[in-house]
Protein: GntR family transcriptional regulator
Organism: Microbacterium capsulatum
Amino acid sequence: MTSTPPLYSQLYDALVDRIRSGVWKEGERLPTEQALVAEFGISRGPVRQALAQLRSEGLVFGTRGAPPRVQRAARSQSFETFISFTEWAEEIGRVPGQKVIEVTRRLADGDLARQLHVEEDSPVVAVVRLRLLDGEPVMIERGAYVPAAGRYLLAADLEVDGVYQTLRGHGIHPTRARNVIDAVAAGPLEARWLEVEVGSPLLRVCRTTFDQNGEIMDIAENKYLPNKATFAVENSVRSPTPLTRMSVDGGATTEGGGGTAIPAEWGSGS
Amino acid sequence: MTSTPPLYSQLYDALVDRIRSGVWKEGERLPTEQALVAEFGISRGPVRQALAQLRSEGLVFGTRGAPPRVQRAARSQSFETFISFTEWAEEIGRVPGQKVIEVTRRLADGDLARQLHVEEDSPVVAVVRLRLLDGEPVMIERGAYVPAAGRYLLAADLEVDGVYQTLRGHGIHPTRARNVIDAVAAGPLEARWLEVEVGSPLLRVCRTTFDQNGEIMDIAENKYLPNKATFAVENSVRSPTPLTRMSVDGGATTEGGGGTAIPAEWGSGS
DNA sequence: AAGTGGTCTAGACCACAAT
DNA sequence: TTGTGGTCTAGACCACTTA
């Protein structure tokens, strides 16, 4: 027995369906809130909650006094799909692949320990992987996991099970992440595995992932071939923007500014 | 006479203030909703609305059954600050500068017209600028504005007034944007103005901006020196992620996939 | 077992858009 | 002027955390 989802969630799904299927076309007006209340036999609260979610995703917009209008459908991605390369590949209908270059257990030095919020000399697990889509190299991932998470990775067969899939099986659920995006030149390691010239531009995403208790579970540095993957963000006035433009050099990197503490030599020993 | 802001907004401000000022420290529990209802003398609706906003910004997190806890303060940026280089610079305490390389009125070719949602051969206004922070080159911006917006830019003195500042003065308010982020190699134009080698990695943000009526007002291609600026996004399970990872080569670029239709030669005539 | 947040209902008033 | 969405109140039930 699975319990029924909340009313606002059901209504949200129904509305998204009508927009995606073209029943309501771009620019057209939605029914009034009162009409939705009547049609679905629920009260105004859940109706407004569903509409608020549509607005926040940019599927709908409008002002006071008039019913909202449908807007260009900008698919959004679930958190799981976003942080997991494997789930992402499957969602876009590609075949994910990977080559595990290095899995090691190391003692965290000062910098890394600070970023992972663990004691210095804690045994962290480092994973360096080449990621593929349909057999073609797309990204180099270098990650460092806190001991609580990393110990499961040493035992797991990463060629078969995804990292997050493995961790979820042990009750560790990635819940929140902070991503910093910039561009870097390919070094010898990336040039070799991604099959590009040294110095080629790569799109870098440095991520800190938090579990359900708000504790850091890993940090990762992912370098993408920019002609294979990009990142898109929708932005609007009606809520503080989730995307922040940051200045790099000036201030201290107290906010986790630019790079990661993952030493450059990891993975180069292979 | 300015009317008082909504209750939920006042409460939100008060809560943010207590978190930022350290009255409530990271990891500590917030008061229960009931306590806030009592303290502020309002009902539960606005209280929940204020808390929801805090959650969506990652300032607070938690689960059912227990009061939420304070989380690492991830400053978020207003939409205006995000899309305006000038406002951004001022907010981070730097001196914005710029050099207008080219301002032209051109007839839109097919590709550009389609991206701007205007008739082919419409007179669009193109602006190419070098942007500076504290006198140092940081970004090259190439933008194309629809006629309704562009006509004000030809008359304005861009060295003095910001683009969006000028447009707002004429009742055109940027309201929503779609940003696509990737990395590119510096071409001769960028190499010259940003003072780097040809082929250096640059962080590129392609943006489509919409006005208050949902109409496209401009498209822009901004190329940053990656060691001068980066972009950060906070992500969480509890709402569909605003950040989308996209595959580039495979499918058609119907979603506005990668690049912009801004011809590469714009600005190179200078 | 008690208390908390998650959800829902019913009714109300106001600012603003449509006409 | 009429109707819409934006905001607020009061009260209720349930699932879950906490002690």
Summary: Residues 7-20 of chain B form the longest helix (14 residues). The CA atoms of residues 43 and 122 of chain B lie 53 Å apart.
